[in-house]
Every structure is written in structure tokens, then in C-alpha cells.
Amino acid sequence: MTGKTIVITSGKGGVGKTTATANIGTALAMRGNKVVVVDTDIGLRNLDVIMGLENRIVYDVVNVIEGVCKLSQAMISDKHDYELYLIPAAQTRDKNAIEPEQLREMCAELEKDFDYVLIDCPAGIEQGFKNATAAAQEAIIVTTPEVSAIRDADRIIGLLESAGMHNPKLIINRIAPEMVKRGDMMDQKDVESLLAVEVIGLVPADEQTVVAANRGVPVVHNAKSPAGSAFMRIAARVDGEDIPLMDLEPKNSLLSRVKGMVGMNGRAYSHA
Amino acid sequence: MTREEIIEGLKARHNKNGARNRNITDALFIKSTFRSGETLEHSGDVVVLADVNPGAEIRADGDIVVLGSLKGWVHAGASGDTKAVIIALELPAARFQIAKYPGVAPTLARRTVKSSASGPMIAYVRSKSIHVASYAGRFARYKKGVPYDG
User: Which string of DSSP letters, residue by residue, matches chain A?
Assistant: First the structure.
């Protein structure tokens, strides 16, 4: 089996890299793939918390690279009955504890046994970013529809291209459909024209994402959540399925339209 | 005639005042989006067949042509050539420079310039300041340009 290594990165912090990694990883495993997610945010580990595996950590990625333990010993199996494993980051070390070449070797080893190796990249463009991207063949960039996040994504795409990683895919996270409809938020086309890369998924802002992260159960487990189903579709696209991007409609659009028709919705006519 | 002979012949032509022949230069083509953090220095002209994004920097001794939206910082005529121009399909750049003359965004300038006017724009130096106008050909005489700096 030869899998592929995909790095999930963004440049800017707090746009949802870790959440995206946990959810895409879980969704790929739910689809029947053998998946391992690697947290490379050494010193600021989060992926284990989001996945609810925090109190099962014994060894971490630095232990593996330093030869303290075997690769299989550091892999934490997810609580569910599909093939999903986590290699956590070390919390007491820093980004300089590992070299890009070492991580590349480790991922090459993992690719032999897994369909997908997902790397959760730290924010920034320093050592941590270099480590995470060196090991990957493909990249998924997470951004939000904000100018600052897009500016950083632009820089990241440039750095990836100069490192020989072309055609990264883009996830636009935390889209608020109502704001887009009002014209207060950039939509998919605006972001696409600014960054000129292929969009692989649109994730709506969803309270359930926060709830799920706090519980340590990725939101893809919640079939009713719009963000969860968005991540499911992204995983399907990563897996090679051709699913068109969905237009994100405001949640209550049909209801408010009906209300507007019968004159119950004051806002519908406020500009008339 | 070989290709080299044609190029040599064209290079041998001189402008009336004997200045450097600007009609034939070594041009550099960039065929993908020029992104934030990327920098480039070139001794001839630069042509970008895509957008120049905010945070990108290009310095060229000759002209800079952007067949897209110019949002980054560019410096044409970097070695002091005031005849260098910047041409872009869209010119929302906050700042750019030709020779030693910096241009400031029209929105920051006292006089408002309709830089959002559709169609390609050209920026050039006239009476020691940068002017912009709708592009009407490389050798058109731009009399009605609007000052680009405050």
C-alpha cells in the first residue's frame, strides 16, 4: 500500500487547521480508508484535544524521531471502530526538536501502511511550517473569508510553489451565508479570484463545530451539522470523488421567504 | 537573416537623443500569480500574465506590464529611467514607483482619480510626478493623465 501525505496549513493562526485535520481525517477513515493524523505543532499541541485522545498519550512524534519508541507505540487508535490513528506532538519541546528530513522519513514509513497521512501544520512560516510541508506531497490550505487570512494564504501558496508543491487545494472555512448574501462577507468567487487556486470545500460557520471540539468528538460525527456534512464532502473530494461545490444558503432561507410572502417578515420589505 | 542578426539590428537603432534603445530589451515573463512575499529584480522589462498580489515586490530597470490586477509594490525604471512605464489591466495598487518618483494611491491623494475606470491603465512620469491614464498604446502621447500622487 502506498498512501499519500497531505499537509493542512494556513499561515494565519486560528482559521481552523486543526479542526479541519481532525474532521477530514475522521471522515476519510469513516469512508473506509486507513488514516493517520500527525500533529506537528510541537509545544502547542491541540489535535489530541479536538479528537478527544488527550489522556491516552504516552509517546509523541519527537520520541519517535529520537528513537525513544517505535512508530507503532506512538500511534493512538481512535475510540471508534475504523482505522484512524493519531501521532501527537510533544508539548515540552519546541519546533526545532525535529528536522524536515526526519519527518519526511517518518511519513514515508507511514505511507507504506496507510492510505492517507494527514499533517496538522503549525501557524507561521518558520521551522514548524518547513518541517510539516517537507514531508507532504499535497497541500490543503485553510482560510477564512477575511482579508488577513487570505493575505497569509497567498504567502503560503507562494512558499509552497517555490518548494515545488504546485496546485494546493483551498478550504474556505467559517462562511456566514447570511453575511455573504448581504454583501458583508467575501464569497467563494472573491476568494478564488484573489488566490487563483482550486477550492476543494466551503465550510459554513456552525456552532456545532465548537461544541464538538469541546467534547473531543469531531463534528463529522454529527450528521445534522452543516459543517460536519461540509467536511464529509471535502473528504470525498480528497478521496477522488467528483462532487460539485454546494451553494451555502442561509439556514432559514425557505422559511423567511415564505414569511416574506405572507408579510410576516418585517425585514423583507424594509428596503422597499 | 538569423534571429540573432535581427535582434542585433533592432538593438542598433537609437532614439533621436541617442538614449538607450528601449524598443528591444530582455523581458522576463511571469506566467503565474505573483504572490505575497515573492520578490524579483530584473534588468529589463517584466511582464506578468496574472495578478500581482499585495505584499509582492517587483523591481525592473525597464517597464512593468501586468496583464491582471496590480496590487503589489512595483518599481519600474529602477536604475533611474524616467521613461519607464507601468501598465496594468487593473491598477488598484496603493503604492508604486517609477525611477525616483513614488506614486501614492489615488484614494489617498487630494484629487480623486477614477482608477476604477475599466480598461487597462498606464502610469508614467510627467513633470516630476507620476500620472495615470487609460492605456491607449505604448507610444500614445498621454496629455490628459491625472496625477497619481498627492
Answer: ---EEEEEE-SSTTSSHHHHHHHHHHHHHHTT--EEEEE--TTS--HHHHTT-GGG--S-HHHHHHTSS-HHHHPEEPSSSS-EEEEPPPSSS-GGGS-HHHHHHHHHHHHTT-SEEEEEPPSSSSHHHHHHHHT-SEEEEEE-SSHHHHHHHHHHHHHHHHTT--S-EEEEEEE-HHHHHHTSS--HHHHHHHH-SEEEEEEE--HHHHHHHHHTS-GGG-TT-HHHHHHHHHHHHHTT---PPPP---TTHHHHHHHHHTT--GGGGTT-
